[in-house]
Design a protein that fits this description.
Helix content: over 70%
Mean pLDDT: 75
Number of strands: 0
Distance between the termini: 22 Å
Number of domains: 1
Structural class: mainly alpha
Largest sheet: none
Order of helices and strands: HHHHHHHHHHH
Number of helices: 11
Shape: globular
Strand content: under 5%
Low-confidence stretches: 91-96, 245-267
Length: 267
């Protein structure tokens, strides 16, 4: 049991560390992040939208033929959650809106990171090399994920200290937690089930990117806003086009876990 958890947990902890690097980088800017929270939010929107459309959603579709329906369900779920939060917390605390509105996007990021951890466990169980390449591919977006979570919280008036703490819990801790939770139920998770969960998270993240994170564009449509959005998109494109993403068929050998039933395969 422990042997099968070691590799995915190791990469899960690496992913959490990379997320922390993103958090530290954006949190250390201090007053700069206060003055430019809108620009960071727009850059995060470009990054998240690009990564979701070019990496996360296609991965989900590859593993579940009904993924588009789950993506739609995730998007609508995010919209419903956001509407419910607005209904329960209607009073804005400042010009950026209510702190409570940050709940939906942060929850979406937490769900997505948790599912990343599950995927690490499943792919390593199916094929060690597939697990390695999948983990490296997913780790590429952990740095911006920390930035995104921090930007969302700062955007809604959360203090730098609390924004760091909550972003750390939502974007960093959840990945190794997903590995630990998935391990006992590993043999009960099918490839289609993981694809469905991944698709739901993709829909939630699409809502976050096109809704809360893009809201500054309505307030400030100056060229610098478009530049920030474009910069985020360009960074995400470079990450998506990195050669490490070509991890499709590096290893076709399934590990022997002394079980007779077939393990879910992601390679």
């Amino acid at each position: 049991m422990w042997e099968s958890v070691q590799a995915p947990l190791f990469f899960g902890l690496i992913a959490a560390s990379v997320t922390c690097l993103g958090l530290i980088a954006v949190a250390r800017s201090g007053a700069w992040s206060e003055r430019n929270a809108s620009l960071v939010s727009l850059a995060a929107a470009g990054m998240l939208l690009t990564l979701t459309l070019l990496h996360i959603a296609p991965e989900a579709i590859a593993h579940n033929r009904n993924a588009p329906y789950f993506i739609l369900a995730g998007f609508m779920g995010g919209l419903i959650m956001n509407t419910a939060v607005r209904a329960f917390f209607p009073q804005p605390i400042d010009e950026f809106g209510s702190k409570a509105e940050a709940f939906t996007p942060i929850a979406a990021i937490a769900v997505h990171s948790f599912i990343d951890g599950i995927i690490y466990s499943v792919t390593f169980a199916a094929s060690f090399m597939a697990g390695v390449y999948t983990a490296l591919g997913l780790i590429l977006h952990e740095f911006p994920e920390g930035v995104i979570a921090f930007a969302i919280l700062k955007r809604h008036g959360v203090s730098t200290r609390n924004a760091f703490l909550w972003a750390f819990l939502a974007a960093a801790v959840t990945t190794p937690l997903g590995v630990i939770v998935a391990a006992p139920a590993l043999f009960h998770l099918s490839s289609e089930a993981i694809g469905a969960l991944f698709a739901i998270s993709a829909g939630l993240l699409l809502f976050v990117a096109t809704g809360p994170l893009l809201s500054p564009m309505r307030e400030d449509a100056r060229p610098r806003s478009f530049a920030a959005l474009g910069a985020g998109t360009a960074i995400a494109l470079m990450l998506t086009l990195a050669p490490i993403h070509s991890h499709g068929h590096h290893d076709d050998h399934v590990h022997d876990h002394a079980h007779t039933h077939e393990m879910p395969r992601f390679d």
